[in-house]
Structure prediction request, 349 residues.
Amino acid sequence: MEEFRNPDYKELNNTIVGQAPTMIQIKRNIVRLSKSDVTILISGESGTGKELVARTIHKLSPRTDQPFIKINSAALPTNLLESELFGFEKGAFTGAFQKKPGKFELADSGTILLDEISEIPLPMQAKLLQVLQDNEFSSLGSITDTKIDTRVLAATNANLSEMVCEGRFRSDLYYRLNVVSIHIPPLRARKEDIGLLCQHFLKIYAARHGRDHTLINKRTMEQFYQYSWPGNVRELQNFIQGITVLGDREGLYEKMGNNGPVSVFLNGQRAARPGSTVASGSVTRRSLKKVCKEATRKAETEAIVNALFHTRWNRRKAAALLKVSYKAVLNKIKEYGIEARYGELLKKE
Ligand SMILES: Nc1ncnc2c1ncn2[C@@H]1O[C@H](COP(=O)(O)OP(=O)(O)OP(=O)(O)O)[C@@H](O)[C@H]1O
Ligand SMILES: [Mg+2]
Prediction:
């Protein structure tokens, strides 16, 4: 079997975890395609591992010692995107005090990943196509062309062929990018990989946080198999990290179901529910007002931590999720001491 003889597979199996037939085929394609310079379009839902696949292709390629440069097309407005991709000369526009190389130039001899390619505005699509066809470009303000030897990979979680039909993406660029495609299926379509992925992440996070290897019980694993993982491998990874750091307790997975988001419970305790929030022994000794205040504090802290966990400490996005103002979230974070208690976990990756 090719898989046993080729050392690339050992490297691959340590980085891209998965034995589902579709993943085995993807790994075979990665090994084969990494040796050529062909342009590849990598598609798949968010969190399925598109960037991981792109980085692995680069790593297994003859370009491995050269740079791997990623550009996120969605993050930048058109004019900035152009200068990010192609750079500019000194004096090209007001404020261009010195020459700045673009990502294509930085990736010369290496690989460039055009991430979220569907977000590239139409005028930029034309320029990009030209660069891909001619292997040369001119930076802003330059009168000469620069030759480049950059391998191009593109990633998308949108349906590009549909966008072509709707006139939102240039068909010629689509065909130029889509010389070969790798489609990564969502995690719900390869549930047999969930167990392996859990082991993989448990090992990583136990080592990283100096914790014992957490064991996941049978009932929980069954829930994992039933859950649809809309955030795919990234969601599973975040969840395992949460278990490792915050601790696994009974009821930790209770909220998990196809109707709601995965929730990380603080201190392994359940979310506060109306009427069942406080340990019964202590209720009698406290005023109803105080009981209410504590329950609110606990439930709000949990909701905010969950939102920050899912948005990776993006407080604006967390505020949107919680349907409150940004300022309200900032105040609560301060009031409940969330940054001091959970900041280290929530701000990671
Ligand atoms: N098969 C896999 N084995 C191990 N880790 C994986 C696998 N697939 C994804 N991951 C991990 O999951 C996380 C998300 O993967 P990645 O960033 O590549 O996804 P993506 O498809 O680019 O997502 P997005 O569309 O949101 O950018 C990363 O930390 C990655 O290492
Ligand atoms: Mg990505």
Notes: Residues 17 and 197 are 6 Å apart (CA to CA). The chain has a mean pLDDT of 83.
